[in-house]
Structure formats: structure tokens, C-alpha cells
Write a structure and sequence with these properties.
Oligomer: single chain
Helix content: 10-25%
Number of domains: 2
Largest sheet: 5 strands, mixed
Strand order of the largest sheet: 1-4-9-6-7
Distance between the termini: 101 Å
Structural class: alpha+beta
Radius of gyration: 27 Å
């Protein structure tokens, strides 16, 4: 009798241990699936962001007041080192047959872990071409205080015409110590604001 009770107790203990092991394995399996889904989603997002080096922003109606357009292309520096750069070209098109439009451009930092510890002028965004009469340079080195910068404002665009802009981000080699920003990351995009029809 004692032997049978000991066997039953041993079986119950073994079953409880097996159930605990099953729960642990189930939890680890679920965690692995969640991590795989997150990784696949991130991979899909980054491949879509980097897919196109040229982008077009179409202003599609005659009445455009208070409409904001945002470009899909993100320019970025990953694990940057002095001398790193990235650049793109983007086009703004007015498809209207009779109405002029007026727009402004700004550059917005989505991710910026650069610091001004080693001085300003290390992370520069340069715009050229389009309606700019000269290059426009914005210093994004101080990520704590600079989140966006105006590029150009109140530009008129005639019907059925386009403006092409070049934008470039540079981790400028200053010849001084830049260890505080080496291997840092920057990503940003262009936004069109105040797109309105001009009478």
C-alpha cells in the first residue's frame, strides 16, 4: 500500500514537473514567434523606406490650403563615421492646368543621436537646386535642441511645372576629436507645408 501511494505521489510530481516544462517551452515558443514577427516587420519597413532614391510629391487639387505633404524617402546615416554621407533628389510637381501653388519646405529629424559635445558643424544637411538661389545648410549636430529646420518658404510653382531639389546629409570631418559622434545614427525626411493655391 505504501509503495503504491509512493508511486502515485511520484507520478503526480513527475506530471507537475512535465507541465511546468511544457509551459516554459510554450512561453519560449511564443516569445520566439513574436521576435520573428517584429524582425520581419522592421525588415519590411526598412526595405520600403530605402527602395526609392527618387521621390515625387504631387500637389493634386486646386484648393490646397492647410494641406501638408510628406516625402516617403528617409535619408540617413547608420553607424556613421566622419566623412559618411547620404543624398537624394526629390521632385515637387504641380499637376493643375491653371492654378499656381505656393509651398514651403522643411527638414525634420526622425532619429538623431548626434551631440554637440565635440562642437557644432559635424552633422550638416545641405539643400540645393529647385527654387533656392544658393545652397541652404542646416546644422543638426545638437540633437537636443534642433528637431527641424526651414529650407525655403512661400515658393510659387506654375501649373504643370516641377521643382527638383537635392538634399545631402554629411558627417563632416572637422580634423578634431569626433569620438562622441562616431557610430551614431541620423535619419530624417522632407516635409512640404503651407501648400496653397495662388489666385
Amino acid at each position: 500500500m505504501k509503495n503504491t501511494k509512493a508511486n502515485i505521489d511520484l507520478e503526480q510530481k513527475t506530471q507537475e514537473e512535465n507541465e511546468k516544462k511544457r509551459y516554459v517551452l510554450l512561453l519560449l515558443s511564443a516569445l520566439t514567434v513574436i521576435i520573428a514577427i517584429i524582425g520581419a516587420s522592421f525588415s519590411y519597413y526598412t526595405s520600403n523606406v530605402n527602395k526609392d532614391r527618387n521621390e515625387s510629391i504631387k500637389i493634386g487639387t486646386t484648393t490646397l490650403e492647410d494641406v501638408t505633404y510628406q516625402a516617403n524617402k528617409t535619408i540617413k546615416l547608420l553607424d556613421a563615421y566622419p566623412g559618411s554621407h547620404d543624398e537624394t533628389v526629390f521632385t515637387i510637381t504641380n499637376p493643375n492646368k491653371t492654378a499656381k501653388v505656393r509651398y514651403s519646405l522643411k527638414f525634420v529629424a526622425d532619429l538623431n543621436d548626434f551631440t554637440a559635445i565635440d562642437g557644432p558643424g559635424q552633422l550638416l544637411i545641405t539643400f540645393s537646386e529647385g527654387k533656392l538661389t544658393e545652397k541652404r545648410v542646416i546644422d543638426f549636430t545638437d540633437s537636443a535642441n534642433i528637431k527641424e529646420g526651414l529650407v525655403i518658404s512661400n515658393v510659387e510653382l506654375n501649373p504643370l511645372e516641377s521643382d527638383n531639389y537635392n538634399v545631402r546629409v554629411d558627417f563632416v570631418e572637422t580634423g578634431k576629436n569626433q569620438d562622441s559622434n562616431t557610430a551614431r545614427t541620423f535619419a530624417g525626411h522632407i516635409e512640404i507645408t503651407h501648400s496653397i493655391a495662388v489666385q
